[in-house]
Amino acid sequence: MSTPSVTQVRWIPVAEPALVGNEKAYVNDCLDSSWISSNGKYIERFEKSFAEFCGVNHAIACANGTVALHAALLGLGVQPGDEVIVPTLTYIATANAVTYCGAKPVFADSELNTWNIDPALIESKITERTKGIIPVHLYGHPVNMEPLLDIARRHNLFVLEDAAEAHGATYKGEKVGALGHAAVFSFYGNKVITTGEGGMIVTDDAALAARMRQIKGQGMDPQRRYWFPMIGYNYRMTNIEAAIGLAQLEQVDWHIERRRENARWYREFLRDCRALILMPELPWAASVFWLFSVVLKTETGISRDDVMTRLCDHGIETRPFFYPLHTLPVYAEQAQYPVAEMLAAHGINLPSSAKLARADVEYICDCLKAIVT
Question: Which of 8-17, 20-29, 196-205, 211-220 has the lowest average pLDDT?
Answer without folding.
Answer: 8-17
